[in-house]
Write a structure and sequence with these properties.
8-stranded mixed beta sheet, 32% helix
């Protein structure tokens, strides 16, 4: 018989009754019934109940051990009586009647419980992450993550992609965040950078003729953490394809990711055919470029109903500036003063002066109720109700100004209304493409044109469109669209990509408009720029965040709950005590001296 186990703790069934079995695992729970001791023994595969009576020497040995001690138990598999069968456990029809016992490792007093899923302070959970990972929910999250990655890898290979590993030590690249720098000992005063993404390498693979690449790629970005983004490092499904247009990428990746979601959605509905929503439409309807489409609310422009109206606040703004718009946020079933007042208070808590509203109830009819309804009159209120498709018992909220200044707040209000009124269709995965992103944006701080997203994207219309927009001026440049797209699911961006700018002259022109010269381009992106000189295939790709997909599939609230050993919100690894100070010897070898910034309290 094997020294540690003949079966796992999730393996024994009714058909094993009468066999001698040996199990090893952690003591999950103990229940002392006086003459009998019940021990739930747990390993990676499951849990089996072990029973010991007082006449057995094993009783006293097990009785005094703390939970999470590791033991080996040998005994007879016996059937449970009908009234004690545990239908919730795969092993619940049997138990192991212990005859022999050996202690493999005794546990100290636990800093956090393993057998219950109670909330515990994050710093304790991260410091003792190996204990936290024993807990059932987190353990299952990590196993689902592994299964998702395996499913993605299989599907990508089936579609003709080849997996390559790109370098980790590389040069700095403009991905929109700070780099993690690695000092070079051999080249004093010079630094490598950890890749924010394998962007240039995967494009170079297309230059090298490999056609379809993918990788489950580690990415490193020195940016502030938040619930849907790990500090420091994360993983993404990274891919690139040659001789493709945007539609080819959509037709390839949509069924792959739909299949992954369907496989792990636990029966929840998944969007079969993804809508394609232009960026401008997403902003206007949902106030976000990553809308939660489970929420049926769509905002509408109602500016004309307020022009020259009796509601002087909005009418005055419209008269003064033609760029001012008024957007309405419909609120089906929200037609009560109590709800409207709650929303108004919420808006004030968000730093807004308030949130105007009209609500329709029986006694007012189509004229509506509330200060706005009284000021604009019954005819305009009825016209708004008709445009929005609302009825008695509904409400509408209004925001006014230049959309660029208020759309994020309007989107947050839409989310709030949908959540408060329970309009959001929980328990499904609503996927969509967001397309036609702006190629450029205005950098107010530096008073200049900047790239809005990925600087390596191909502008719609190519170099001709760039040059025409440049001649027409700033507004034309800001109106230029890119062959750029995101995938969104339930209010999260889970992937981003583009058709690349593979023509060197077009690449230089795109950067020149942001203020860089051809020499700057050659200096910063020389590897890619030079590769374009020797025959570059049209190509495009995308990257999908592994943690965000798994977070959605597991119903977790934060990506930390789907990562093995994450950092805390201050980008510290409490388990391994990183970052930590370097020794004087290490610094000397790297030709580095640390000069602390006193302003930061160092």
């Amino acid at each position: 018989m094997h020294s540690y186990r003949t079966h796992t703790c999730g393996q024994l069934r009714a058909g094993d009754t009468g066999k001698t079995a040996r199990l090893s695992g952690w003591i999950h729970r103990k229940r002392d019934h006086g003459h009998l001791l019940f021990v739930d023994l747990r390993d990676h595969y499951g849990l089996t109940q072990v029973v010991v009576d007082t006449s057995n020497p094993v009783f006293k040995q097990l009785e005094h051990l703390r939970l999470e001690s590791v033991v080996t138990v040998t005994g007879e598999v016996v059937a449970r009586s009908a009234e004690t069968v545990n239908a919730k456990l795969p092993t619940g029809a049997v138990e192991l009647r212990a005859r022999e016992f050996s202690l493999q490792s005794e546990s100290k007093e636990l800093p956090l419980p393993v057998s219950v899923e109670a909330d515990y302070p994050e710093d304790i959970r991260l410091r003792y992450r190996y204990l936290d990972l024993r807990r059932d929910k987190l353990h299952r999250n990590i196993m689902l993550r592994a299964a998702v990655i395996a499913s993605i890898r299989r599907r990508m290979i089936e579609q003709g992609f080849t997996e390559f590993q790109t370098p980790i030590l590389t040069a700095s690249s403009p991905e929109g965040a700070r780099d993690y720098l690695v000092p070079s000992r051999i080249h004093p005063g010079k630094f490598y950078a950890l890749p924010q993404a394998p962007q240039m390498f995967k494009q170079l693979l297309m230059m090298a003729g490999f056609d379809r690449y993918f990788q489950i790629a580690p990415c490193f970005r020195d940016e502030d953490p938040r619930a849907d983004r790990l500090p420091g490092e994360f993983y993404q499904l990274d891919l690139e394809m040659s001789f493709v247009e945007q539609e080819d990428i959509f037709q390839t990746m949509e069924p792959i990711l739909t299949g992954v979601f369907e496989k792990f959605a636990d029966g929840k509905p998944v969007t079969k055919v993804w809508p394609r929503i232009p960026y401008d439409e997403a902003i206007a309807k949902y106030g976000s470029d990553k809308p939660d489409l489970r929420n049926p609310i769509e905002m509408q422009d109602v500016t004309e109903h307020f022009r020259d109206s009796g509601f002087k606040v909005f009418a005055g703004m419209i008269a003064k500036d033609p760029a001012v718009r008024v957007w309405a946020i419909p609120a089906p079933t929200g037609g009560s003063r109590a709800f409207c007042d709650r929303m108004n208070s919420w808006a004030q808590g968000e730093g807004q002066p308030g949130l105007g509203y009209i609500f329709w109830r029986e006694d007012e009819g189509a004229a509506g109720a509330g200060p706005i309804a009284k000021n604009i009159g019954a005819e305009r209120a009825e016209a708004i109700q008709k445009q929005l498709g609302l009825k008695t018992g509904d409400a509408a909220f209004f925001v006014a100004g230049k959309p660029a200044n208020f759309y994020k707040f309007a989107g947050a209000a839409r989310d709030r209304v949908g959540s408060e009124l329970k309009l959001v269709k929980e328990g499904e995965f609503a996927l969509a493409w967001i397309v036609d992103f702006p190629f450029y944006e205005w950098n107010e701080e530096d008073k200049k044109i900047d790239f809005s997203h990925n600087p390596f994207s191909m502008p719609k219309g190519g170099r001709e469109a760039l040059e025409a927009a440049e001649k027409s001026g700033r507004d034309a440049l800001l109106g230029l669209k890119a062959n750029q797209y995101d995938i969104v699911c339930n209010g999260y961006e889970i992937a981003s990509g583009s058709v690349r700018n593979h023509v060197p002259e077009t690449m230089v022109k795109a950067f020149e408009i942001t203020g860089l010269t051809q020499k700057d381009v050659e200096d910063r992106f020389g590897g890619l720029y030079r590769a374009f000189q020797y025959g570059a295939p049209p190509h495009g790709g995308m990257a999908a965040g592994i943690e965000r997909m798994v977070m959605l599939l597991t119903g977790s609230k934060a990506v930390r709950d789907v990562a093995l050993f994450p950092m805390n919100q201050q980008a510290q690894d409490l388990l391994m005590n990183a970052p930590s100070e370097a020794t004087p010897k290490q610094l000397r070898e790297l030709s580095i001296r640390v000069v602390l910034d006193q302003k930061k309290g160092a």
